[in-house]
Write a structure and sequence with these properties.
By secondary structure, this protein is of the alpha+beta class. The chain has helices at about 1-125, 135-145, 155-170, 230-240; strands at about 175-185, 185-195, 200-205, 210-215, 220-225. The protein has two domains: about 40-170, no CATH class; about 175-240, no CATH class. A five-stranded antiparallel sheet has the order 1-2-3-4-5. This is DUF3450 domain-containing protein.
Length: about 260
């Protein structure tokens, strides 16, 4: 009995020892596998991190590339625009050069023309009915002064010459009245003067007993008969806007 028990204990001890030895043999490879798996996982994490970094850098480079491409396209459009502007400016410069050459030729022709226009204007004023004579001849003298002024451009000189002609043309429809003095038979007579354009230029004494009309052929005042006293009076009233314009019977001696 005791012998069987001992054998059983020995057998149990051997089985336990074998099981313990077997568990140690199996545990070591598992630990190695686990350690290898952990190392592989760590390596995978590092690799993924590197991949993520590379991907991020790649995206940045792609974005930068696209930005450069966009800027390049914009620069191309802008350069084309500037090129067209330069071409247009060059064409304008060529046009200005041609115009300057034309202006120089025009000046050579216009300046003598203006002198002739001024001379003609002066001759006309002296041949015309002598109203506002001092003002009109003074305008001609000012034109002669600006013609020799270096501070006045040729275009401005021409403008003022044309303006003087325009003023003279406007006198044809001028209706005005004034007072003055006539020298008649060595006497100075105070008179009212009436003007209707260049058609009628008359004078009448303050006492309404005498009337005159300008004779542009003889360059003198010609006394009118009594039948013209009332018409002359009406002309002066119309010139003063004291009466409406209407037909009156008067001798006419206009500018020739």
């Amino acid at each position: 009995m005791s012998v069987k028990i001992r054998k059983s204990l020995v057998a149990t001890a051997l089985v336990g020892a074998f099981a313990f030895a077997s568990s140690n043999v199996i545990a070591d490879p598992l630990n190695d596998v686990q350690k290898a798996g952990q190392q592989i996982q760590k390596a995978a994490v590092k690799s993924q991190t590197k991949i993520d970094n590379v991907y991020g850098q790649t995206q940045e480079l792609i974005a930068e590339y696209r930005s450069i491409v966009d800027e390049t396209e914009l620069m191309k459009v802008y350069n084309d625009h500037v090129s067209r502007l330069v071409d247009s400016q060059n064409a304008s410069i060529e046009s200005f050069d041609r115009q300057i050459a034309t202006i120089d030729n025009t000046k050579q022709n216009v300046v003598p023309l203006m002198y002739r226009m001024i001379d003609t204007l002066e001759q006309f004023i002296k041949a015309d009915v002598p109203f506002n004579l001092e003002t009109r001849l003074g305008r001609v003298e000012r034109l002669r002064e600006i013609m020799v002024s270096a501070s006045v451009t040729t275009s401005e000189k021409f403008r003022q010459v044309l303006e003087a002609y325009t003023i003279e043309t406007a006198y044809s429809s001028l209706v005005s009245a004034s007072q003055g003095t006539l020298e008649v038979d060595g006497k100075s007579i105070n008179v009212d003067i009436g003007q209707l354009g260049r058609i009628t230029y008359v004078a009448q004494s303050f006492d309404l007993k005498h009337a005159w009309v300008w004779d542009n052929n003889t360059k003198q005042w010609k006394e009118l008969g009594e039948e013209y006293l009332k018409p002359v009076k009406e002309v002066i009233r119309m010139a003063r806007k004291q009466a409406t314009l209407e037909l009156v019977k008067l001798p006419i001696f206009g500018a020739e």
